[in-house]
Amino acid sequence: MHKVSRRAALLMLPLLSTALCAAGASAQTPSPGITDTSVLIGITAPVSGPAAALGGVSRGIELRVNAINAAGGVKMADGKTRKIELTILDDAVDPQRALTNARRLVESNKVFALVGTMTTASNQAVAPYADEQKVPNLFLYSAVAEWGSEKTHPWSMSLLISFPTEAAVFVEYLKRFKSNAKVAVLYLNTDMGQGFLAGLKTALAGTGVTMVGSQATTSNDPTVDTQLSNLRATGADTLMIATAPRQGAQAVRYAAESGWKPTILMSHASSSVANLKPAGLDNAKGVITAQFLKPFDQSKVASDPGLKDYSDTYDTFKPRFDKIDTLGQQGYLIGDALIHLLSTIKEPTRESLMRAARNLDGLSLGLLMPGIKVTTKSGVDGYPIESLQLFQFDGAEYQPIGEVISYEGKTPLPD
To answer: Would you say 346 and 357 are in contact if contact means Cβ atoms under 8 Å apart?
Structure first.
């Protein structure tokens, strides 16, 4: 047997120590909230009070999680299969309560990540805390532009189409089908409406489409008749609406009953059929909106694998929302995206999860419209969805018009 001298052995110790340290570094220490068999996820959402309907998003996430757990869990890229343990806390759409919930989820429940945090105000309260704690606040439910900025919010990301992107897609539609349109805009005087208006102005530059007027409204305005009268007086032949549902319905009714009859392009935030009913569905004929989500249609379930998966899962677990509820479907989509992310990470760390979220490469999800995929690129593109399918209301339901319009990689980051 070859003998190693004591001196040689001593000389080898530093090398051995270095090798052991390197091996230890390569096996990342797991972040809080993840073990070899489970991963803890937290949600703060309104599930009671006047905004309880918004809880459909969290219940949709829960539905998708229940399905993957029943199938055994998420097989992650480190070779381990983990079940998702979901904790949902009620914030009654109160931003301070949402922040309190986030603290509890992170510091007491020790969650791996926050997912599906609801509303812009609640996310603006939670995001600085998530940044401070370096906890992912993923696929949050707010469409304002700030969530696309990795520099501003390194640990937060939305899955919704941003309002500036939506405005730009509307301009793309007009460039193709009404290239000399004169546009008037009714917008909610919040981050939502202001972001839509800013995105619209940017997208209009260098086109034949012009904006001839804009009017702001607030959620406290009893009607929008004055604003609509002013917009009609501009001679606009196209009306864009980026408001809350009540003001949107009022605008549609006014435009029809006053005899104005402009082409109406309406933000997804207020364009559901249920939201149009107060306007009178006949008055809403011709309204154009945009969506990235497949409308649920029972007659298409058999021929659409994505809808069939959602429908079958719904029928199996019987969640507390209607099958056609868009909020529930969006929650299901968020849950699907979360499961995909978890399946791709090789290291059980929050940093690895966030890195995966920042570098999504054409991810297809079952409830997305055909041709729409999820793409991000760290430092360059923080907006996962930037394509939309346009729909036109026929008096009973929305019908798709034209092809998917892509604005992929073009949404400008906020200053």
So the answer is: no
Task: Give the pLDDT score at 20.
Answer: 44
What one-character-per-residue DSSP string does 91-146 give?
Answer: -TT-HHHHHHHHHIIIIIS--SEEE--BSHHHHHHHHHHHHHHT--EEEEB---GG
Instruction: Walk across the sheet containing 182-188 and list its strands.
Output: 210-217, 182-188, 238-242, 263-266, 288-291, 387-393, 398-406
Q: Tell me the C-alpha to C-alpha distance, in Å, between residue 124 and each of 121, 144, 174, 236, 366.
A: 5, 11, 33, 35, 30
- CA nearest neighbour of 348 among 35, 25, 22: 35
Q: How far apart are CA 234 and CA 251, in angstroms?
A: 16
Q: Residue 81 in 3-state DSSP?
A: strand
- Partners of 137 in the beta sheet? 114, 156
Of all residues in the chain, what percent carry a pLDDT higher than 70?
93
What's the pLDDT at 415? 67
DSSP for residue 304: -
**CB proximity list for 170: less than 8 A, separation 6 or greater:** 200, 240, 265, 290
**329, 296 contact by CB (below 8 A):** yes
**Rounded to whole angstroms, what are the CA distances from 373 to 64, 136, 160, 383?**
19, 22, 12, 11
pLDDT for 219 equals 85
Distance separating the N- and C-terminal Cα atoms of the chain: 70
Handedness of CA 400, 254, 272, 290 (dihedral sign): positive
pLDDT per position as a tens digit, 221-253: 999 999 999 999 999 999 999 999 999 999 999
Give the chain's domains with CATH numbers.
Answer: 38-161+295-384 (3.40.50.2300), 163-291+402-406 (3.40.50.2300)
Kindly report, residue by residue over 21-60, the tens digit of the pLDDT.
444 444 579 999 999 999 999 999 999 888 888 899 999 9
pLDDT at 330: 96
User: Which pair of structure tokens corresponds to residue 164?
Assistant: 């500036």
